[in-house]
Write a sequence for this structure.
């Protein structure tokens, strides 16, 4: 089949509500710093009532990756469930406006579109509080076979194991992708998410359902329940064809059966908000990979895209990453 | 009566939808650059369909001023009309979260909460496209007499002459304020707004309905239909007790019957988005004035607050202006 998209991205479609907060606020409100905390309606109302002035921007891990790929000039598609409400309109607008193909059927009624209240502390770290809303309705019926079959890579987030039926959607997508000679990729998403679904994630890798894994070092060591990064790298080498591991200011490491490639972090002026860092790294990497670049170049492009997004508030690029790529000579 | 608030702010309650755009986009879409363009539902839908990925933040000229005063540590109240919808909830949240007293009754149904699509060009200039929505319903019944009587200054935006009944609300507020020995202040808002209501604005000044006027140089020369700034200053000296005129990188000029005080612009690193510059200047100035500072100091504090807001996307302070004031020794 003709390749229509470089990367199809599947994830929880979430609008971010972003505010600054001090560390003692996180402690007082029992928010796990740096993590994605799942919340219900009642807690969402409480947290909003104590939250400072905020800005709203479309987010969602794989949604940010899709936006990043489009900003780099890649062909991106997205599957994710919003509701037919204000935030759903905003989410759809932002996706299409950056050039992502996004046609997942909107939920006609309740629950409302998902939102994540993100508190950014003075050190630039983000702590997320996610109300999944309409994302719980994503299922196999939302998998458009033609799009999966015509995408070089289908990429999804580990967070999709939280809603009840999204994993069925992913298994369906994986079957279609592999039947068409395409590749599957995932991100481990979050150390606590890894803790919730460790065995299932390992099975996805060991069964070959997933060919390329993204993780940060915390997620990787959580996956193998070890405190040693080197041990985790040794283990993942056996379990997955290609693994790209981000290590914040230490750059990233690409692990294959044969070798380990280390790439320095892209220099930044000031860390403002880490939201979207991993998502944009994946965007750059996947853009590189689907454009025939070496794994080392993929990691470099990923580092560049991540560097852009952590220097401003919000999870998606605010400049053309395609222009940035040209300027950097990458 | 005891003073409960330093400044009561009255204005069009608007959520800003902010995106980057190139100059040729403004030309193609017939948007007057640097101005506030009023739009109807149909045009709002069209512009949103061609707008890039956006972020949403509470705005509205006098609303931004209220937020600025609260951020400086001043006691601020606000009157403005939102609807009982998602954006109305967001607007109310952001106002209260920064510490502004805001209790204006929400419109129970249509029209929806106002929004302004703001395009920020690479030079940092903002061009606004405002759908007034529920703001058209603001009227004298929204003027809480006790709050007007207990506020040192009541400040409002010239933009309030656009909706049909807000001017009646302002006249009512002015009567209450002056009967209680309080002062009235306004901003001329926008050169085209001045053009629409020139005679009425001059009458507000000459009749003593307004004691303190804020304007930028374009609005001031528009008011007197002259191309000479010096001529406009000479004219306004006769018409108003105190006028504070902002001149972008040239700083600001405070004009009274007796003298003219010129204050340099506050230094900045990089101009990102001018949205809110005038509103935050007014916030700093009014905070100074209601705290017994000299007119020169008022202009300096205004310049500082404006400098903060133009160095990031969005119309309201992203740091505590109170802390900034202390750091600057102002």
């Amino acid at each position: 089949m003709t390749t229509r998209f470089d990367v199809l991205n599947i994830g929880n479609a979430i609008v971010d509500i972003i505010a600054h907060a001090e560390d003692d606020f996180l402690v007082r409100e029992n928010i796990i710093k740096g993590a994605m905390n799942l919340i219900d309606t009642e807690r969402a109302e409480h947290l909003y009532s104590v939250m400072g002035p905020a800005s709203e921007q479309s987010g969602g891990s794989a949604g940010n990756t899709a936006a990043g790929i489009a900003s780099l000039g890649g062909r991106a598609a997205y599957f994710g469930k919003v509701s037919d409400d204000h935030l759903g309109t905003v989410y759809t607008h932002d996706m299409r406006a950056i050039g992502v193909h996004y046609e997942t059927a909107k939920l006609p009624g309740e629950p409302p579109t998902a939102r994540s209240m993100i508190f950014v502390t003075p050190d630039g770290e983000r702590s997320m509080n996610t109300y999944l809303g309409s994302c719980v309705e994503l299922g196999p019926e939302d998998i458009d076979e033609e799009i999966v079959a015509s995408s070089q890579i289908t990429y999804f987030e580990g967070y999709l194991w939280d809603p009840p039926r999204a994993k069925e959607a992913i298994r369906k997508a994986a079957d279609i992708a592999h039947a068409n000679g395409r590749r599957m990729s995932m991100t481990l998403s979050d150390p606590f998410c890894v803790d919730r679904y460790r065995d299932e994630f390992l099975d996805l890798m060991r069964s070959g359902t997933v060919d390329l894994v993204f993780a940060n070092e915390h997620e990787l060591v959580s996956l193998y329940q070890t405190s040693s990064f080197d041990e985790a790298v040794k283990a993942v080498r056996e379990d997955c064809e290609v693994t790209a591991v981000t290590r914040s200011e230490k750059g990233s490491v690409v692990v294959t059966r044969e070798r380990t490639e280390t790439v320095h972090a892209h220099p930044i002026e000031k860390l403002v908000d880490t939201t979207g860092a991993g998502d944009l790294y994946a965007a750059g990497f996947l853009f590189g990979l689907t454009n025939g670049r070496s794994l080392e170049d993929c990691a470099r492009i990923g580092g560049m895209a991540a560097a852009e997004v952590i220097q401003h508030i919000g999870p998606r690029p605010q400049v053309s990453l395609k222009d940035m790529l040209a300027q950097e000579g990458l």
In short: Chain B is about 40% helix and 20% strand. Residues 191-206 of chain B form the longest helix (16 residues). The longest strand of chain B covers residues 14-20. Residues 153 and 258 of chain B are 22 Å apart (CA to CA).
